[in-house]
Amino acid sequence: MDRVIEVYKKAASERKTLGFWIYLMTDIVLFATLFATYAVLRDSTFGGPAGKDLFDLPSVLIETFALLTSSFTVGLALLAGTRGKRGETVFWLLVTAALGVLFLTLELSEFGRFVAAGASWQRSGFLSAFFTLVGTHGAHITVGLIWMLVMIGRLIHSNKPTDLGRLALLSLFWHFLDIVWIFIFTFVYLFGVIS
Amino acid sequence: MNENVNKRYWSYVIGFVVSIILTLTSYTLVQKHLLPMAGLVATIVVLAVAQLVTQLIFFLHLGEEKGARWKLMTFVFALIMVVIVVGGSVWVMYHLNYNMMHMTPSQEKTYMQDNEGL
User: Fold this and answer.
1) What is the Cα–Cα distance from B102 to A1, expressed in whole angstroms?
2) Which residues of chain A are within 8 Å of residue B93 when distances are taken between CB atoms?
């Protein structure tokens, strides 16, 4: 009987993972539309500043490394969860959240710098597309951070050793956001500086 | 079980190190302008795609499913959508732009005065 329950539980968890995966795939399509908009509008600066005048690559590189490292540490959190180590899982999730906050802080200070320089989303088509694309990614990061804090709270308070199913979905989401960022880094920032 | 965890651990480490190398390479290429324009653009696109593949394999463990590969199938479908949406938009809008005028407000004013008498 226990074995049957185990098998059903495993199948249910696999269905949840697949459902969440399909959500991520639709999110890819959302980002694709925003990337397409950006690609079309990137030269429409309307006499205003272009990417080359605005982007500060060293700061963007730090953002990139913060997010990349957090994608690594969320994997370590999942591994610690698989081994049933609750304390270690919470520790790596806290590290991941701290790196996520660092990323978001750098991004928001960049946005603040642009707006202060008169380059807000109202300035040109290029800037509207830029803020929509990068801002949507930042909004996803914010949601991921809230999820992570809820996850940490659940891990601390629940008496189950770990909440593996949810943790696996959270790590999936977080890895996905880092992959989207690779393309923002390349197509927005690097391309912006070279052309 | 333990062996499996160990394997996973090394897969994250490899993915992380390779991603760092790829990111630093494209960053350095751009900052130091090490290649001519066309080569530079092509190289950093290839590096980004390489990093996508790296993270799909080592972080998301895509391709490890057994049986019907639903994750892989939905991913391929999403990729096709990306190519159609992004490629199609850029293609269509490039041709539209080609047939229209690109001007700043002051250029537009001069143009209207010189050519349209406005």
Assistant:
1) 72
2) 40
In terms of domains, do B3 and B50 share one? yes
Q: What residues 114-173 of chain A have any CB closer than 8 A to a CB of chain B?
A: 172
Write out the residue range of the structural domain in which residue B101 sits.
67-118
Choose, out of B3, B18, B59, the residue to mutate when testing the contact with A (most A CBs < 10 Å): B59
- B86: closest CA of chain A, how far (Å): 5
CB B111 within 8 A of CB B103: yes
Residues B16 and B42 in one domain: yes
* Co-location of B20 and B54 in the same domain: yes
pLDDT tens per residue, range A47-61: 899 999 999 999 999
How many inter-chain contacts (A to B, CB under 8 Å) are there?
116
Contact A182 B55 (CB under 8 A): yes
B contacts of A36 (beta carbons < 8 Å) = 85-86, 88-90
Same-domain pairing of B80 and B45: no
Q: What is the pLDDT of residues A135-190, one digit of tens each?
A: 999 999 999 999 999 999 999 887 665 678 899 999 999 999 999 999 999 999 99
Q: Do A39 and B89 touch (CB under 8 A)?
A: yes
Check whether residue B57 and residue B83 sit in a common domain: no
**Does residue B60 sit in helix, strand or coil?**
coil
Question: What own/partner pairs with CB < 8 Å and gap ≥ 24 does A150-158 have?
Answer: A151/A93, A152/A90, A152/A93, A152/A94, A152/A97, A155/A86, A155/A89, A155/A90, A155/A93, A156/A90
| Predicted ipTM of the assembly | 0.92
Preferred mutation among B18, B27, B52 to probe A, highest tally of A CBs within 10 A: B27
Q: How many domains does chain B have?
A: 2
Same domain, B4 and B51: yes
- A105, A67 Cβ separation under 8 angstroms: no
Q: Are residues B71 and B54 in the same domain?
A: no
